[in-house]
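Example record for the data management plan.
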Amino acid sequence: MTKALVLMSGGLDSILAAEVLLDQGIEAEAVTFVTPFFDSVNAEKAAEMLGIPVHIIDITEPHMKMLKHPKHGYGRFMNPCIDCHAMMIRKAGELMKELGADFIATGEVLGERPKSQNRQALGIVEQESGMEGYVLRPLSAKLLDETIPERQGLVDRSKLLDIRGRSRKPQMALAKKFGVHEYPSPAGGCILTDPMFSIRLRTLYKVEGRPTVNKVNLMKIGRVFLSSEGAIIVVSRNEEENKRLAQLAEPGDLIFEAEEYAGPLTILLKNSYTERSVFEAAALTARYGKAKSLDEVDVTSVEFGTSEKRLIHVQHPAEAVHVNPPKDGELARVAGA
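Corresponding structural encoding:
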């Protein structure tokens, strides 16, 4: 029996790509990938709904390395879609051979995403992945060159589709045909397409060079500022974020809390900061806490992994620092009053 390995995001397009193949009697298994920027939750749900096995591959290390300088650049924000898709298909190709599958299928639709789903980009992805001829896109296959499994008679090309463009109407009609009623919105999935997170992440890469996974996850939380010296400061917004920040701190990071008053946990990331950045982190801790209207607030600072505390006196927290409005592509910068 013909077997396909379907790249499964869990979105409607990848679900329908699998359905089109299953409808032909082709055996299908799903593969999905995880990094700090996207997870496998929706893909696992979709595979369960389809009744097919799912393979989960963690590509965090190569993905984060690629993200700093993607060969084919970024999309609108910090999303390196062409390089990312090529990496996924290359990894899927390795799994395809292990499983004895005949080809790889994706839910890509010609013209749905201008940068990453045009003819040239789809071709580049195949070339970069080393899987030329073995990547079938069932939803747009009739608009694209015939693949090797089609030429070999493993897939009936007449039963594939010719969907193109950004309209979702053809997919919604197909979903109704296959009885698919629940699926995530097309905008969900990869946080690299989020403008604010992209600004934070770009700044993190600039400051730290090769950030850890913990540092990337810190960029998803709370308020993020640059000190006047260019150090990164993260200030939580609620008790749940306090817990998350504490879990993600690493040796060398400074952690700040207001003495005797409820308020945020603040982290000054381990980089080339001086006393000015330390004061600014302490002042932000006081400013966003319950004691911000007091004349003076004591804030403790401790280096993660040590027990020695330092007491910092912040006078008039509401006025101790001000935050300059961010420029395009930048974080807000803190400056002493």
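Summary line stored alongside the record: The mean pLDDT is 94.
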